[in-house]
């Protein structure tokens, strides 16, 4: 309401589905989600519980209430991609280098795949519940996928993201796929089954269009979402406005473009800046 955005997003911590499935996880200030017992053995994986339908009732209720409050403004559902969700399970918390994941990929790839399959099933259930409760679109976030090489992404992560999209294919909603530092992965992320590609702030949208067009037969028809640099939210307005103009110009190279940030909002951002950005984008000719 404050910012007059064209859609809201049902966004909570990425490990919420694990918590609903009974995994002991807490949010540590200044750190993020921390698991009491990381999952690194077959026995540990087999101790995990399935995500039961009744556990999703609070999510369905929250989405339903939010949709009612938003009125004509659509709500986007949210979920963590299997690789990113599994990275928290395996590492026991946030990790940029992912040492435990890399070790498990190389020493016990079967176990690694089984952990990701568990995460895929949980994410699919979590996202389906949101659509059934009224969400108008979905966004799958793969926050840590950019830490993988292309070969490792294709071998270990992409098949499980595809499982999520395949299991949600019957839902008549747009499905966005987004990752950070994933320029080298864009075609394979698209091949997982998204209908919209999110692009982070490190990749010019025209470059993303070129990569997708050259690498995937469906690339030319895929809408893009992105990719205002969140670091520039603290810049003076003239500099920020020039950057927004550049993003809008770049977005015209795609079949269609959803203007958005190229990652999350930094915690200390002045909210008035966000309101001004939305107002400015709405004023541009030819944009809806």
The helix content, as a percent range, equals 40-55%
Low-confidence stretches: none
Largest sheet: 7 strands, parallel
Kindly provide the radius of gyration, computed on alpha-carbon positions and rounded to a whole number of angstroms: 19 Å
Strand order of the largest sheet: 1-4-5-6-7-8-9
> Which overall shape is indicated by the principal axes computed on the Cα atoms?
globular
Mean pLDDT: 94
Class derived from helix and strand content: alpha/beta
Measure the end-to-end span.
18 Å
Count of DSSP strands: 9
Number of helices: 11
**Order of helices and strands, N to C?**
EHEEHHEHHHEHEHEHEHEH
Strand coverage percent: 5-15%
Question: What this model shows, in words?
Answer:
The protein is of the alpha/beta class and 288 residues long. The protein has a 7-stranded parallel beta sheet with strand order 1-4-5-6-7-8-9. The chain has a two-stranded antiparallel sheet with strand order 2-3. It has helices at 16-20, 42-46, 57-70, 82-91, 99-107, 109-132, 150-167, 186-191, 205-215, 237-251, 271-283; strands at residues 8-9, 25-28, 32-35, 75-80, 137-142, 174-179, 196-198, 224-228, 257-261. The mean pLDDT is 94.
Jot down its keywords.
288 residues, alpha/beta, seven-stranded parallel sheet, 11 helices, 45% helix, 14% strand, globular
Compact summary:
Helices cover 45% and strands 14% of the residues.
Helix-strand layout with pairing:
Elements: E1 8-9, H1 16-20, E2 25-28, E3 32-35, H2 42-46, H3 57-70, E4 75-80, H4 82-91, H5 99-107, H6 109-132, E5 137-142, H7 150-167, E6 174-179, H8 186-191, E7 196-198, H9 205-215, E8 224-228, H10 237-251, E9 257-261, H11 271-283
Parallel strand pairs: 1-4, 4-5, 5-6, 6-7, 7-8, 8-9
Antiparallel strand pairs: 2-3
Helix pairs in contact: 3-6, 4-6, 5-6, 6-7, 10-11
């Amino acid at each position: 309401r404050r910012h007059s955005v064209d859609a809201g997003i049902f966004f909570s911590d990425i490990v919420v589905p694990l918590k609903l499935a009974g995994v002991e996880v807490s949010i540590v200030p200044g750190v993020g989600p921390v698991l009491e017992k990381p999952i690194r053995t077959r026995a540990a994986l087999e101790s995990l519980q399935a995500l039961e339908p009744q556990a999703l009732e609070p999510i369905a209720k929250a989405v339903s209430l939010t949709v009612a409050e938003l009125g004509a403004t659509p709500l986007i559902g949210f979920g963590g991609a299997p690789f990113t969700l599994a990275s928290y399970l395996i590492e026991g918390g946030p990790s940029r280098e992912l040492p435990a994941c890399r070790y498990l990929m190389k020493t016990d790839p079967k176990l690694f795949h089984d952990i990701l399959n568990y995460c895929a099933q949980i994410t699919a259930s979590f996202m389906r519940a949101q659509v059934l409760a009224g969400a108008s679109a979905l966004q799958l976030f793969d926050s840590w996928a950019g830490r993988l090489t292309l070969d490792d992404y294709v071998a270990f992560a992409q098949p499980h993201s595809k499982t999520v999209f395949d299991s949600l294919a019957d839902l008549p909603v747009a499905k966005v796929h987004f990752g950070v530092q994933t320029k080298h992965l864009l075609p394979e992320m698209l091949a997982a089954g998204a209908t919209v590609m999110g692009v982070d702030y490190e990749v010019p949208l025209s470059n993303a269009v070129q990569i997708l067009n050259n690498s995937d037969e469906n690339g030319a028809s895929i809408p893009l979402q992105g990719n205002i640099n969140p670091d520039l939210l603290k810049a003076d307005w003239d500099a920020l406005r020039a950057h927004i103009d550049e993003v809008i110009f770049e977005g015209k190279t795609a079949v269609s473009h959803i203007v958005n940030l190229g990652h999350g909002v930094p915690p200390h951002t002045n909210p008035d800046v966000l309101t001004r950005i939305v107002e400015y984008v709405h004023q541009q000719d030819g944009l809806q």
